[in-house]
Amino acid sequence: MKTSIATVSLSGDLSDKLRAIAKAGFDGVEIFENDFLAFDESPREVGRMVRDFGLEISLFQPFRDFEGMPEPLRTRTFDRAERKFDLMQELGTDLVLVCSNVSPAALGGIDRAAADFRELGERAARRGLRVGYEALAWGRHIHDHRDAWEIVRRADHPNIGLILDSFHTLSRKIEVNSIRSIPKEKIFIVQLADAPLIDMDLLYWSRHFRNMPGEGDLPVTEFTRAVAATGYDGYLSLEIFNDQFRGGNANAIAVDGYRSLIYLGDQVKRAEPDIRLPVPDMPPRVDVKGVAFVEFTASEEEAGELEALIRTFGFRKAARHRTKQVLVYRQGAVNLVINTEREGFANASYLVHGTSAYAFGLSVDDAAATAERARALGAEPFEQAVGPGELKVPAIRGVGGGLIYFLDDKSELAKIWEIEFEPVTDGAPAAPAGLTVIDHVAQTVKYEELLTWLLFYTSLLDTKKTPMVDIIDPAGIVRSQVVENNAGTLRLTLNGAENRNTLAGRFIAETFGSGVQHLAFATDDIFATAQALRANGFKSLPISPNYYDDVEARFGLDAELVERLKAENILYDRDDHGEFFQLYSPTYGEGFFFEIIERRGYRGYGAANAIFRIAALKKYLRPEGLPKV
Predict the structure, then answer these.
(1) pLDDT digits (tens, 9 = 90+) for 206-220
(2) Binding site: what residues are annotated?
(3) What's the CATH number of domain 435-618, 3.10.180.10, 3.40.190.290, 3.30.70.890, 3.30.1370.10?
């Protein structure tokens, strides 16, 4: 599978873009005309730069307002085309994109357009060049790839072909299976882009909100399946117009783009096994059975404070690492690990971020296969020295540079707690509080990283993403999306912070980077758990009494239930599937906190309650300007 990306998709000058594209692993690059015009080097030098980076110019674009022009404009368009042909030959590329005409002066008519392209094909052929025609979704007369194909078909010239763009087809809801009958040799290049579903002007939507395949809501996989069914084996090229990407890190965006194409190719290959799509072999997306553990790094002093807090949740000290300063606290199927080593990655993470949940482990069917798929998708593997009696646990770098470990039941990893740890007797065990599993892990990231990590998780794990939700903070908006599987054994909430005044933004600023900001534990009886927590000395996050008056009226709750909620500071929500109960701890450190939930069929995450618990949580933060102690 040949991969390419348009320079317009990335930030920086042309040399910055080429460097990022090459580093990410692409085979080719589309040179967007404005990027070239803003660059000081000659066309010949730009072509040399591209080749020195190990790339090929897959396309030069765009050439606008060509077909169907009346005289004298028609003559002028052919003169412009000849100038572009000169430029292409100096650059060292043979393909130019002509997009459908949007000029008010353009005349309609399939045959008129076909005649123009036939003549242009003759001129291109004399130079050994090719011309691809693309139907813009907002074209004046041609805005459907089926009409563009009919023009190409009637032009009947070997140097004239079709360019397909997923956005232009899918934004107009055009039937993608119409592509399957197009001869593969007449498809000169395929451009791919996804986008969130937004009801707005097509041009504005396209110019500002495109994103990588898999990051939006359009059926790009179905589109690509139709393309692959033709036998097309040319470039799959990303053309992404996105304001956020234009201001982002070119290297990171390029890596996302390459990952999106590899993931897309893998999806198509699995959906259309009879199609020979040259995609790297990799294991399928991974089924996650649950969160095996969450690991904190801390100093010895801060570890004592953290231990005291989690004991109030009913966790007991269960095991000690045989050779390292690492303890395991357990309740139900929840394992919390506290690492106070003074060397290694955990310590390095502590020195940067302070006490934090820097790693978590996922229980999967096959840990080695999971790591293999992660590597194929461009994830960064993690390894460090393995001591005597320790297992080599597959791991990759995740959000904020933290770690994700993979455990399974089919290898010796199933016995990691017995092999690496020895049981200990807790001298002062707290009473268990009925916590069963980790319901979800909440990670806070910069808003511009949100799409990156959504793609990261959904391409690796057998999960889906929920629609984006606006979380209301008294100081701003936090964008939130969830990656979850159908079984409910994995739920990862991703919260994108846009300013440091929100609780999420403050967490990123004070801990120097993205990471896990809160853990949610599940219980089968929130009221029994609340009583057990109180008996253990737990102090829940106080919620305003005004909240409960509103909840009673809004949901028509029984007064007795409302009093029980108020007495334990439990938040309440309801959806079409059932009820939801939430209980929070105050913040720990620089904005980290714990949540306990009970789901009675409810499928959401209590977004309606966010503003109330955030307002309460912020009261426990260290005042701005007050130094850490």
Answers:
(1) 999 999 999 999 999
(2) 134, 165, 191, 239, 440, 518, 595
(3) 3.10.180.10
